[in-house]
Amino acid sequence: MLRETISVIRDFRRVRAIARILMHYGWGDIAERLGERSWLRRAGNALNSEASREIMQLPSEVRARLALQELGPTFVKMGQVLATRPDIFPPNWIEELSKLQDQVPPVPFEDMLPGLQEALGKSPFEVFRDFDTEPVAGASIAQVYQAKLQDGTPVILKLRRPGIQANIDADLRLLHNIARWIESEVEGARRFNPIEIVDQFAKSLKRELDLALEGRNTERFTRNFTNDDATSFAKIHWDYTSESVLVMDKIQGIPGNDLQAAREAGMDLPLLAARGADAVMKMVLIDGFFHADPHPGNIFFLPENKIAVIDCGMVGRVSIERRNEIADLLAALVSRDIDTLRDILITWAGNVAVDEDKLGADVDEFISTYDNAPLKHISFGILLNDLTTIMRENHLSVPPDLTMLFKALITLEGLGRQLDPDFQIVSHLTPFVKKIIVDRYMPRTLWRKGARGVSKTIGAITDLPGDVSQVLKEAGRGRLKLNLDLKRLDHFGHQLDHSTNRLTMALITAALIIGSSIVMTVRGGPELFGLPAFGFLGFFLAFIIGIILMISIWRSGKN
């Protein structure tokens, strides 16, 4: 509470503005949590204002969108992030939040000029041969201008808005207050980690503020596509680039949202869709570093049906483990493997309690929905939406890195279908998935995994004496602590029963072998195949029990 109050004091004016907007749209309970009620009264009697009857008649998701739009760029971007979380919100909320637009009126150039001069070290009219003071594009973080270098090279200059850093920092502090309240007061919200969502959003937004980082991202994409002549990225001019200014070559091409111009230029639109899809698949499944916002405004069509990608500030990363999970997910969908699909969803959800029977039944129903449909005819967006709906209904959440990836793939599918009505993203996914699965069992991959495992084992053995010594010291001092997690005690008991049964069977088998060996040395009595009958039967029983034991162990390892 003290931290929240200090935040309110620091951001007094912003709290007043936000509280008024929230109250106006009927979200007074959230407004109260921005600070003590007394503070809000002093901030302009915000709590005494009430939402109009007309506004309160609107659906709650519409009121939320209107409030976020009026609250400004930070909250609009937060809403856009939440629009990628169908595991949290129902479809009507997702559809409404998707309407949020990052559009703000341009800042006059005279207000932008001081920051530009400070970043360049001199007037832009001295640095550039030509400089157009009218912005050609703009969003909440930066505005875009056209210029020419002294050698005549046309460039694009992206300039951060003045004061944007302080405004975003204030909004993020208030968003953290709201997230803490939601996590503590809203039933069931904790499993979706609202504080973690805001933390991830804050990191992403702060990275977008660093325009030099966008330049480095662009150069990394350029390196990754060195051998791909069909995909290109703008050249960055580092002599003029800094955290607040980005200067790059101007892309001379047709904007991706001007399909009529592309048709008139005689471009092969289905080929453009295919090349764009293959580029994104390479980013995601091969490089593990992808453009997180591949909408038409960030793509240009170049001569010879080539594409150029811009605005690389928002990027995502996919670990090798995640890429393998995606490959396994798609393979499970093709083979209708319910168990694998269920296990992947549980892995994505993390360490949470899961009703595996219910989840398995939901996955079975999900797969049966697509049972008779070829995968290439299935909308990837609908498929992902159905998967995340299953996760939401089973109280599971999607990891933040996957929500960004899902959003990028759904955006890509939408663009592809604008270019080609027959576009199927799955047909472009399949070759890359096959490559991942094949590479997984290549000798070099197995050797690398084996070497890594040996290295870890040697490290563990090397550290063992020191670890044991430390444990003994702590025990001698009476400070040894033992933490038990009893969440799955029933599962542990079940496994213990299995282990005990196997041990008993192993002991019986050993006893039969030893006893039969002794009996074999004794002459006399009934015989089978020229051998003492009891010894022969003992060996036979030991053989049968041993086979059963091996099958049990093999099945356990497979599961």
Description:
This protein is α+β, with helices and mostly antiparallel strands and 559 residues long. It folds into 4 domains: 2-102 and 174-193, no CATH class; 104-173 and 194-250; 258-441, no CATH class; 491-558. It is built from 24 helices and 13 strands. Strands 1, 2, 3, 4 and 6 form a 5-stranded antiparallel beta sheet that branches. A 4-stranded mixed beta sheet has the order 5-10-9-7. The chain has a two-stranded antiparallel sheet with strand order 8-11. Strand 12 and strand 13 (531-532) form a beta hairpin. Helix 6 (60-71) runs parallel beside helix 8 (91-97), helix 11 packs antiparallel against helix 12 (194-209) and helix 23 (489-520) runs antiparallel to helix 24. The longest helix has 34 residues, at 443-476. The protein starts with a helix and ends with a helix. Residues 36-49 have low confidence and may be disordered.
End-to-end separation in angstroms reads 48 Å
| Shape label | elongated
The fraction of residues in strands falls at 5-15%
Helix content: 55-70%
**Biggest sheet details:** 5 strands, antiparallel
Average pLDDT confidence is: 80
Low-confidence blocks of residues? 36-49
Structural class by helix and strand composition:
alpha+beta
CA-based gyration radius: 31 Å
Number of helices: 24
Count of DSSP strands:
13
Number of domains: 4
